[in-house]
Automatic annotation (TrEMBL), chain B:
Pfam families: GATase_5. InterPro entries: Class_I_gatase-like, PRibForGlyAmidine_synth_PurQ. The gene is purQ. GO terms for molecular function: ATP binding; glutaminase activity; phosphoribosylformylglycinamidine synthase activity. The lineage of its organism: Bacteria, Bacillati, Actinomycetota, Actinomycetes, Kitasatosporales. GO terms for cellular component: cytoplasm. This is Phosphoribosylformylglycinamidine synthase subunit PurQ. Part of the phosphoribosylformylglycinamidine synthase complex involved in the purines biosynthetic pathway. Catalyzes the ATP-dependent conversion of formylglycinamide ribonucleotide (FGAR) and glutamine to yield formylglycinamidine ribonucleotide (FGAM) and glutamate. The FGAM synthase complex is composed of three subunits. PurQ produces an ammonia molecule by converting glutamine to glutamate. PurL transfers the ammonia molecule to FGAR to form FGAM in an ATP-dependent manner. It comes from Streptomyces sp. NBC_00148.
Length: 749, 226
């Protein structure tokens, strides 16, 4: 096997190269030649191809994403913004919190268990690389139709993978979502979020500066897993006798990751690193080029020193391998011995693979021969940028004109009753405990709220009771009807969920899941959704700290619904003031906050009863959301409400059902004046919540709402063992429980 | 002198911080013990915490059982040192033959995390004296290999000698034989159970109950009066 060295590449300018098979476009290949002033070596070509891929370079999305950096609200909580492994916000008392949501969609379809497991592993390392101790994870998931046979293959594997990895890491899983829709058939969405906490002074950034500093690779050995297109190169260029069918999906080892977390935190504690980066997509190519690029530029790596699981790997494969549970640290020479000692204590393999140099080139050697000589910025940060064409789809107007208002509504109490039972038992509205009970929500001993609460909440300081909360939301049906509004609704719902728990929303991370950027319809959806989200964040005062884009979620011509998932992070000064969803106290008064309008476009009701998707999604008034949030937070802090539940998909009846079942109490409700029972129960108007108010607090609470101009209506009382809608119907809790809690187990157990 | 209670950290132990916190909340001095260190640092009792030590590779608890710290724990447990094994700690105690039986994969094959009702059957062990026999408590359960099994003769012996310390009440979550959630050795100093009392020691956190605190107050009282 001959080695394609830099020297050899310079001498053989016309040698054919498999750039096309590696996914590069002709002009991209030409640009690489121009940057280097020669043809790239096989190793260089491999690095550019993977770093310039859509996944790593955001080449189709970045012209739109830049709005998140331009429309930045006044917010003094931001400590580190977009561009690092994850953003960091100040939560007070000297604490900083870092959080991010990422996608692992495609691998999870191919190999559900490992795809989902390594999704958790990857986001946890991102958080760790910022200097933070990971404290909780969340998992927003989307699957195809609940009764489709392939969903039975995909869902149990994904759930087991998230649990198998996260549970073994000792991170409580405190929230997320599960949504079923035929549009995700063949393209399930597995998004994974993680929250980490640190002291301000412990923030670490991914950069390599200081010539002479050592580059240390530590964690798992490097194997052949996760090598996608690069095996094309390995086999075509060098040796087609060796096995090329390596698993394209990475395989995770959560035990190794747990050791890596504890080892890394001990290294941070002793302040032994100058820069650090986790190894995720694009493996060492990404870590070395990004570290060097963010530093002074120069780095020399001896690739043959990398510890391998498979000694037959070629240098290109080592550069591309996405083997999990690895980190790369930049360490000053005097700290190297201590660094190694800590790794030894935790049984973690650590190897000096190179050093930071004076120059500005990233140079990689294989047994003394140079195989890479590139400006690192050109690999990591100066990839191609596409201004993809986009246009409002020709079908959009017809879709929006297909108003849900014309759908047949229940004619009497008996029909209403029947539709309520059908709704709360439908896969999307049913209890998700069959799934979430497979995740450990208790570990670390700080979990205050976890699913099915509106937001997950963890305590971060035992003395002061400071805590953080997170919710994730995204309604693809709304976004399909109107991507701009859909993205704002995702933001509004997530914001509302955090506020309902009593925490103050601070900042967001997003995971933008869309179809192919080469389709102008999809690109329009993406442009609209990012514009909506950026505008919304500006209005709400919650900056985007980072996130992830997942494109090409489509099979053939059919794209998924545009699915922007928004994670809002909030802070609460005293977790003992948190507000759960359960109606736990009989006799308390139920109040509906906000305005209820006839809004059924994209609603759960239209889906469950009529299998309909059309019209316009609910209106969004972010000023109103902000006011509602302030009221919910004040009421929580001052003990005016004992329970709160946001209203979103499924409307009021869904929220009341969940709160009643959770608290083990029924409710007697009266349809407020000016509303009909159907609209009262099923409307999905945004900016609303239902709260349970102790009688002693009633005046104080209604006075506060009145003074601040939030519409509020008394709708009933917590009482009995059934939900009764006066003059319409009643359903015993036991019947609701059977309908609501048996669905997923029936489908997947 | 304050009571010192050690909590062992193996590679892959997850609930060590929770156990240390529970010890502190109960009023004793928590001491971290390291798997490679044979020295128990003059602790008065030892807790083997939950988690996936050594990734549960080979078999849950099978590798940890051979660690240096366990040599001392096994030797001293036989001489009367109080030892509590929670979840993975229980699995380690059975692997170490300090307690009989073994844990199999849950009968439904899934990891399960739930608030679990338990009945305290034996309130005379070193770790359960603050409860009363027959008392029902609720603590979190979370595991994938939690199905207690043993041969019929062993089960009959455990029953006859009152060594079934806890049984699952209302639902048996994993197919454990005779609803067994936890057992004790004949002397009552070594107790193991699958559910997690250390996750139920503070109002608001976890289940929001403090039903698990009795484990830690029991041992402190025993050690103080000893």
């Amino acid at each position: 096997m001959s080695l394609d060295t830099v020297k050899h590449a310079a001498e053989t300018p016309d040698a054919g190269q498999p750039w096309k098979e590696l996914g590069l476009k002709e002009d991209e290949y030409a640009r690489i030649r121009e940057i280097l002033g020669r043809r790239p070596t096989g190793a260089e070509l491999a690095m550019y191809s993977v770093m310039w891929s859509e996944h790593c370079s955001y080449k189709s999305s970045k012209v739109h994403l830049k709005q998140f950096g331009e429309k930045v609200p006044e917010n003094d909580a931001m400590l580190v913004g977009i561009g690092e492994n994850a953003g960091v916000v100040d939560v007070g008392q000297g604490y900083a919190v870092t959080f991010k949501v990422e996608s692992h969609n495609h691998p999870s379809y191919i190999e559900p268990y490992q795809g989902a497991a390594t999704g958790v592993g990857g986001i946890v390392r991102d958080i760790l690389a910022m200097g933070a101790r990971p404290i909780a994870v969340v998992d927003p998931l989307r699957f195809g139709a609940a009764d489709h046979p392939d969903t039975r293959r995909v869902l149990p594997g994904i759930v087991a993978g998230i649990g198998g990895y996260g549970n073994c890491l000792g991170l409580p899983n405190i929230g997320g979502e599960v949504v079923f829709d035929a549009c995700y058939q063949g393209n399930p969405l597995v998004n994974a979020g993680c929250i980490g906490v640190m002291k301000h002074e412990d923030i670490h950034l991914a950069q390599a500066s200081g010539p002479g500093n050592k580059v240390i690779l530590y964690g798992a050995r490097t194997g052949g897993d996760g090598i996608g297109g690069v095996s094309v190169l390995a086999s075509e260029t060098f040796d087609d006798t060796k096995p090329t069918k390596r698993p394209a999906v990475q395989v995770g080892d959560p035990f190794q990751e747990k050791l890596l977390i504890e080892c890394t935190l001990e290294i941070f504690k002793e302040k032994l690193v100058a820069g650090i980066q986790d190894l995720g997509g694009a493996g060492l190519s990404c870590a070395t080029s990004e570290l060097a690029s963010a530093g002074s530029g120069g780095m020399r790596v001896e690739l043959d020193t990398v510890p391998l699981r498979d000694s037959s790997l070629s240098p290109e494969e080592i550069l591309m391998s996405e083997s999990q549970e690895r980190m790369c640290a930049i360490v000053e020479p005097q700290h190297v011995d201590r660094f190694m000692e800590i790794c030894e204590k935790w049984d973690v393999i650590a190897t000096v693979i190179g050093e930071v140099t004076e120059g500005s080139q990233l140079e990689i050697f294989w047994h003394g021969e140079q195989i890479v000589d590139v400006p690192p910025r050109s690999v990591a940060h100066e990839g191609p940028t596409y201004h993809r064409p986009f246009a409002r789809p020709s079908w959009q107007d017809a879709l929006q004109a297909d108003d849900a208002g014309k759908l047949a509504r229940p004619a009497n109490g008996a029909e209403l009753r029947e539709q309520v039972l059908k709704l709360v038992g439908s896969p999307n509205q049913a209890s998700k405990s069959w799934i979430t009970d497979q995740y450990d929500r208790f570990v670390q001993g700080n979990t205050v709220l976890a699913m099915p609460e509106d937001a997950g909440m963890v305590r971060i300081d035992e003395t002061s009771n400071l805590g953080v909360a997170m919710a994730t939301d995204g309604n693809g049906r709304y976004a399909k009807l109107d991507p701009y509004t859909g993205a704002r609704l995702a933001l509004a719902e997530s914001y509302r969920n955090v506020a309902a728990s009593g925490a103050k929303p601070l900042a967001i991370s997003d995971c933008l899941n869309f179809g192919s950027p080469e389709d102008p319809d999809v690109m329009w959806q993406f442009a609209e959704a990012t514009r909506g989200l950026a505008d919304g964040c500006l209005e709400l005062g919650t900056p985007v700290t980072g996130g992830n884009v997942s494109l090409y979620n489509q099979t053939g011509e059919t794209a998924i619904h545009p699915t922007p998932v928004v994670a809002v992070l909030g802070v609460i000064d005293d977790v003992t003031r948190r507000t759960p969803v359960a109606f736990a106290e009989e006799g308390q008064l139920l109040y509906l906050l906000g305005d209820t309008r006839e809004e059924f476009g994209g609603s759960a009701w239209s889906e469950v009863i009529h299998q309909h998707l059309g019209g316009m999604p609910p209106e969004v008034d972010l000023g109103r959301e902000k006011l509602l949030g302030e009221i919910l937070i004040s009421a929580s802090r001052d003990g005016m409400v004992d329970a709160a539940h946001d209203l979103s998909d499924g409307g009021l009846i869904q929220a009341v059902t969940e709160s009643c079942l959770r608290g083990g109490n029924g409710a007697r409700l009266v349809v407020p004046e000016g509303l009909d029972a159907f609209t009262f129960l099923f409307s999905e108007s945004a900016g609303r919540a239902v709260v349970s108010v102790p009688r002693s607090e009633e005046l104080r609470f209604t006075d506060m709402c009145g003074a601040r101009g939030l519409p509020v209506a008394r709708i009933g009382v917590v009482d009995g063992e059934e939900i009764e809608i006066q003059g319409e119907f009643s359903i015993p809790l036991s019947e609701l429980r059977t309908a609501h809690e048996g669905t997923l187990e029936g489908l997947f157990a | 002198m304050t009571t010192r209670i050690g909590v062992v950290t193996f590679p892959g132990t997850l609930d060590d911080q929770d156990s240390l916190r529970a010890v502190r909340i109960a009023g004793a001095e928590p001491v971290s013990l390291w798997h490679r260190d044979k020295d128990l640092h003059q602790v008065d009792a030892v807790i083997l915490a939950g988690g996936f030590s050594y990734g549960d590779y080979l078999r849950a608890g099978a590798i940890s059982r051979f660690s240096p710290v366990m040599e001392t724990v096994i030797e001293q447990a036989k001489a009367g040192l109080p030892v509590l094994g929670i979840c993975n700690g229980f699995q380690i105690l059975t692997e170490a033959h300090l307690l009989p039986g073994a844990m199999l994969r849950n009968n439904h094959l899934h990891f399960i995390c739930r608030d679990q009702k338990l009945r305290v059957e034996n309130a005379e062990t070193a770790w359960t004296s603050d409860y009363t026999a027959g008392q029902e408590i609720s603590v979190p359960l979370k595991n994938v290999d939690g199905r207690y099994t043993a041969d019929e003769r062993t089960l009959d012996e455990l029953e006859a000698e009152g060594r079934v310390a806890f049984r699952y009440a209302d639902v048996n979550p994993n197919g454990s034989l005779r609803d067994i959630a936890g057992i004790t050795n004949a002397a009552g100093n070594v107790v193991g159970l699958m559910p997690h009392p250390e996750h139920a020691v503070e109002p608001l956190i976890g289940t929001g109950r403090t039903d698990g605190l009795g484990f830690f107050t029991s041992i402190i009282k025993k050690l103080v009066t000893a």
